[in-house]
Design goal:
Layout: E1 3-7, E2 12-15, E3 18-21, E4 27-31, E5 37-39, H1 52-65, H2 73-86, H3 91-102, H4 106-131
Antiparallel strand pairs: 1-4, 2-3, 2-5
Helix pairs in contact: 1-2, 1-4, 3-4
Amino acid sequence: MALVIDLKPGEKILIGSAVITNDAQRTRLHISGEAPILREKDVMKEEEADTPCKKIYFLVQCMYMAANPKEYHKKYFDLVKEIQHAAPTTAFIFLAINEKIIGDHYYKAMRDARDLIKLEEELIRHATEQTQPAA
């Protein structure tokens, strides 16, 4: 069964190591085969990975796109240990992500890593509110 992707005018998509840019009109692609595929909105650039959990997402994205995903595993699992030590509440999300990584389901792991980023944002917001003096 083919994956069907609708692209907006000018939208980009990564298929394997190729970047494809849509022209000036909507396009529908039917894609068959076993290549990693990422829409532009799901791509995180390395310079955007400016927090620990965004770095996790970026590393999982690298695993998904890489010919040899395991080359990113050590860096990923080392960072997981650091984050879990600092924020034990992340353990359940990491359990889900790790299970998908070990099963070579990197795209699904990326989706869970988005939840991790949301949790990180909540924790930072909560910590910031706790440290600000009352007005």
